[in-house]
Write a structure and sequence with these properties.
- This protein has 197 residues and is mainly alpha-helical.
- It contains 8 helices and no strands.
- The protein has 2 domains: 3-75, 434 Repressor (Amino-terminal Domain); 94-189.
- Helix 1 (3-16) packs across helix 3 and helix 6 runs antiparallel to helix 7.
């Protein structure tokens, strides 16, 4: 799917309806920056926004996905199959892009945490490094990573981008933190860990 052609088609349809980018954004409950990005061919709307976008522009979803007006009354099976294929490809690309951003955020959080902890004391022994890695870095990574992903997810949602995977990863990190502390205190209760009975 050609992002430039898609964006130009949205801009033409919007102007035909005498709508500004802000008008369209308000109707779709996204930011006008998101509409601007679509029209410049920088990105695509969230998959869930396609039908409301087509409705707002008074065009069919098939016309939107093909980025052209369709004058014939009936659509061929090939046209419908192509539109479905384009929609699925768009969804796949959005998920891949979101995953890449998630791992970038987590990577940055990891690097910053490790750097700060190793700056604290450069003469650690092996047991100190292992304890610090498991007992300090992992919980801090889960907590800070979850907070960073929640913030990033809120920003993506406000920008009209898909954020489901981002929120899922943030929740997964919080769950990992809860499991870690549960096992830590269970080990202490059974007398096998650093927490006294």
């Amino acid at each position: 799917m050609d992002a430039q052609k898609f964006g130009a088609f949205i801009a033409v349809c919007r102007k035909e309806k005498n709508m500004t980018q802000a008008d369209l954004a308000a109707e779709l409950q996204v930011t006008d920056k998101a509409v601007s990005r679509w029209e410049r061919g920088v990105g695509f709307p969230d998959i869930n926004t396609l039908e409301p976008l087509a409705d707002a522009l008074d065009i069919s979803v098939l016309e939107l996905m093909r980025s052209e007006r369709i004058t014939e009354q009936r659509f061929s099976n090939e046209d419908a199959a192509e539109a479905v294929s384009d929609t699925l490809e768009l969804a796949r690309l959005q998920q891949k892009h979101e995953r890449r951003k998630i791992f970038s955020v987590l990577g940055i959080v990891s690097i910053v945490l490790i750097f700060l902890l190793f700056l604290d004391n450069l003469q650690w022994q092996a047991d100190t490094i292992i304890f610090t890695g498991v007992g300090v870095v992992l919980p801090l990574f889960c907590l800070c990573g979850s907070a960073a992903l929640l913030g990033y997810g809120i920003w993506r949602k406000a920008a009209g981008k898909p954020a489901g995977q981002t929120f899922a990863f943030a929740l997964g990190l919080l769950l990992l933190l809860v499991i870690f502390f549960g096992l830590f205190f269970l080990a202490g209760a059974l007398g096998g860990g650093p927490v006294p009975n």
